[in-house]
Design a protein that fits this description.
The complex is a heterodimer of chains A (392) and B (396). Chain A is of the alpha/beta class and 392 residues long. Chain A has 13 helices and 11 strands. Chain A starts with a strand and ends in a 7-residue tail after the last helix. By secondary structure, chain B is of the alpha/beta class. In chain B, the strands form 2 sheets. In chain B, strands 1, 2, 3, 4, 7, 8, 9, 10 and 11 form a 9-stranded mixed sheet that branches. A two-stranded parallel ribbon of chain B has the order 5-6. The chains are: A alpha/beta (392), B alpha/beta (396). The interface between A and B is medium-sized, with 29 and 27 residues.
């Protein structure tokens, strides 16, 4: 894989940072360049450096088994830690991710200067809202870690055909950030298109495996304005499975001038949801839906919506939210939350329902957990005979 | 808990950096000062700040639930991450570790040490064991391709695994390791400290558990005291990064103890002890220097009886390399496997050792390793069962 020197251009009020990418492996539909676009007003924060282009492509290059040739100087810290980063990928999935060499034209003798800005990758979901909430200037006691910026990405969870939905959400979030004295940068990128292809479920799994790399890459693209970047943790410390965003992985993507911080390690999704319920700003802005969001309006039918709505209902807070259709239909809890993959979130919700004596929800959640476990056991059993099995 | 301003004194060619510590809780065995002592020639590396005193005391303060008062500035990065550090301790053992506030005069945003352009030496905490030898080997100037991460200094601690009655043994091993580091064109710094004495007190078993839960903070503190001369500090991992159990040194904890001027690197994330031993067996420098013993080492000579010795010897024997090592008593007796390794703690290593023995056709080792694994599994099951009735159960 060759990553050419990035170029910065500005046209129609949009700044575009792009680098040509060549792979030896021929894959249909692979973009010829990796790019980031954002309003011209933030052009001064743009880092025309290799790091923002190498980081998001590392999992993909490992998947292809291609060394990365980098047409520029590279951060020694990142260069060192990318070896460890790859070791972790390869440790979990040795057949999918093979360690590759990163071959820059040289290592930077003098690192860039750290900028004072502190950014958060913001999606409007529970995790990123919680990180925003904890590090608002009025709540974070350490000045060097108080948020100044958020980055809201198009083509991260929302696809090209959801542009109208992105615009609506982006306007609302920019206003929210302004009210707190912060700046939200709406940015567009195509890092997620660098993937080996396959079925919908394979592509979704790939997206999860590379999630930290693409987010950190987008943050590094603003390395002239940000000195710290907070990535909201989707899991607690207890989670030992493989996911593309974890503390050991994300923090390995720091450079001398931009520290990537994997934020909130010990709070599970239910804890975070409840904490946010006391922040009125989330009542008409929380956007958790991955099926069919309309701006910040959630569909109320998908697993993420049902999970969040059930948590809020268990805490007696759902009525305060205007972004969910109401009422919560109990009949949707079992079909949506009994998937094996969703079982990780249930214990926190069950504890909450128990604490608030919501026996109706407690029983449904408990049954959902039981079904999820059975599905998991069956899946493991079936995989012995059909190793590629992905059902249930 | 109050940490007073540090003082520097010089006696007999040594420099001692110490700070008086006051606690509200009356704990008679607790030392009045936390101190570090090392040869005067390294005085230029002293970091004149409070971080070396704050870090090792955090677990103790959390345990006795006392806020820490620090009479000066603290690194903002460290302050931020210490909150997370405490969250992790509290998450794993909420009854033993309560989050406590750290009250400080200010944060040192404009400290002259915060200068990333200044290339500084790279240190490592060295004990002579498998983990630290592995980290040393990987990051020697000849093996580590990134110059900024090549080791220049080692720090060899007294008061860490070796106690006062083992001073003669420490002196012998120090002489050996200083020669080794000199041969590698590196510098080994002997450093004494008393950070490990800061704990609530209790039985020997409780002490052992406490030390296992807090040793990362002690090591990092000792590294920070020389942080005026170091830019990076390696701490060798003692377990895989996804190890499920709580230990006082793991990646997430150790790297939270970095500052803007000293990056702490938890090294060796994906190699377990057996793989590290295999890698070291090809490095002749370890043949007369590897010191793994925790029972009764004499300089770099290992007792050959304790579980750590038996584990290392078995791996080396399975590889056909034990004969090269002059630091283990011989001949090797496979029956030691059943006597020493059939424990829950030792079971983590047995599978890899068995694989190596099988690969090398050492069936005389495979069978006892397999039996030891089964005994360990039965012990673990019994322990889980016993804990249902007595949650504090620690036997077997």
């Amino acid at each position: 894989m060759n990553i050419h020197a990035p170029e910065i251009t500005t046209a129609n009020g949009i700044t575009r940072l792009a680098a040509r990418v060549e792979t030896q492996t021929q894959i249909n539909g692979l973009p010829g360049e990796l790019w980031y676009e954002f309003p011209e007003a933030f052009g001064g924060m743009a880092a025309v450096d290799m790091e923002a282009f190498v980081v998001p492509l590392v999992p993909f290059a490992m998947r292809l088994g291609e060394d990365i040739h980098v047409a520029g100087e590279f951060s020694p810290q990142l260069f060192y830690h990318l070896v460890r980063y790859q070791q972790i990928y390869s440790f979990y999935e040795p057949r999918t991710f093979r360690p590759v060499q990163i071959i820059p034209s040289g290592l930077r003798a003098t690192p860039l200067e750290r900028a004072p800005g502190v950014g958060v990758m913001f999606s409007g979901g529970v995790d990123s809202f919680y990180t925003l909430y904890r590090h608002l200037p009025e709540r974070q006691p350490i000045p060097e870690f108080r948020l100044t910026h958020g980055i809201f990405l198009f083509h991260f969870d929302l696809q090209g055909y959801e542009r109208a939905s992105y615009r609506k959400a982006s306007q609302l979030y920019q206003q929210l950030f302004r009210e707190h004295g912060l700046t939200l940068i709406p940015a567009n990128f195509n890092s997620r298109e660098f993937q080996p292809g396959g079925s919908y479920s394979q592509r979704r799994r790939w997206a999860n495996k590379a999630i930290g790399a693409v987010l950190a890459g987008a943050g590094l693209a603003f390395g002239r304005g940000l000195g710290r970047l907070l990535l909201a943790s989707p899991h607690t410390l207890e989670f030992v499975g493989f996911t593309g965003s974890s503390m050991p992985l994300d923090q390995s993507l720091s450079t001398e001038w931009l520290e990537v911080v994997h934020d909130s390690l010990v709070e599970d999704r239910a804890d975070k949801t409840i904490a946010l319920a006391d922040w009125p700003a989330t009542h008409d802005t929380l956007r958790v839906c991955w099926w069919d969001p309309d701006g910040v309006q959630n569909c109320g039918r998908c697993a993420k919506c049902i999970r969040t709505m059930t948590t809020l209902e268990a805490a007696g807070k759902l009525d305060a939210y205007t972004v969910f259709p109401k009422p919560l239909r109990r009949g949707r809890i079992l079909p949506r939350l009994s998937a094996h993959s969703g079982g990780y979130y249930l214990p926190g919700m069950i504890r909450l329902a128990l604490r608030n004596r919501r026996w109706d929800l407690f029983i449904l959640l408990w049954i959902a957990r039981l079904i999820g476990r059975l599905r998991g056991a069956l899946k493991r059993f079936v995989r012995v005979f059909a190793p590629g099995f992905e059902g249930w | 808990m109050r940490i007073h301003a540090p003082e520097i004194t010089r006696t007999n060619g040594n420099v001692r950096v110490s700070a008086r510590i006051e606690t509200e809780a009356r704990l008679p065995h607790l030392p009045e000062t936390l101190w570090y002592k090392f040869p005067e020639e390294f005085e230029g590396m002293i970091f004149h700040g409070l971080e070396p005193f704050l870090i090792p005391l955090v677990p103790c303060a959390m345990n006795i639930v006392e806020a820490i008062d620090v009479p000066g500035d603290i690194s903002p990065r460290l302050l931020f991450h210490l909150e997370r550090y405490q969250q992790m301790y509290h998450y794993w053992e909420p009854r033993s570790f309560a989050p406590i506030p750290i009250r400080h005069a200010g944060s040192r945003g404009s400290d002259p040490l915060v200068n990333p352009a200044r290339a500084k030496p790279v240190g490592m905490m060295f004990s002579g064991g498998v983990d630290s030898f592995h980290t040393l080997h990987r990051n020697l100037p000849g093996n580590q391709p990134v110059p900024e991460y090549q080791i220049t200094h080692g720090i060899y601690l007294f008061g860490f695994d070796l106690q006062e009655h083992e001073r003669a043994s420490y002196a012998k091993s120090l002489a050996r390791y200083q020669r080794l580091f000199a041969d590698l064109h590196l510098t080994l710094i002997p450093l004494e400290f008393n950070a490990r004495q800061f704990w609530r007190g209790g039985t020997q078993l409780e002490n052992r558990h406490w030390q296992a839960k807090t040793f990362g903070a002690g090591l990092a503190g000792a590294g920070h005291v020389l942080g005026g001369g170091l830019g990076k500090l390696y701490m060798a991992s003692s377990q895989l990064f996804n190890h499920g159990e709580f230990m006082g040194s793991e990646m997430r904890l150790d790297q939270s103890l970095s500052t803007e001027w000293l990056e702490i690197i938890h090294d060796g994330l994906v190699e377990d002890r057996t793989r590290k031993t295999v890698a070291l067996a090809d490095w002749p420098a370890t043949y007369d220097a590897l010191r793994v013993c925790w029972w009764n080492p004499d300089g770099v000579q290992n007792c050959g009886q304790c579980p750590k010795c038996v584990r290392t010897m078995t791996t080396l024997e399975a590889l056909g390399k034990l004969g090269h090592y002059s630091v283990f008593p011989k001949p090797y007796r496979p029956r030691l496997i059943l006597q020493r390794l059939a424990t829950i703690a030792g079971s983590a290593y047995l599978r890899d050792m068995r694989a190596i023995a099988r690969k090398n056709g050492r069936w005389d080792l495979v069978i006892p390793l397999w039996i030891a694994g089964w005994i360990a599994n039965i012990r673990a099951a019994l322990k889980r069962f016993a804990r249902v009735f007595n949650p504090a159960f620690e036997g077997w």
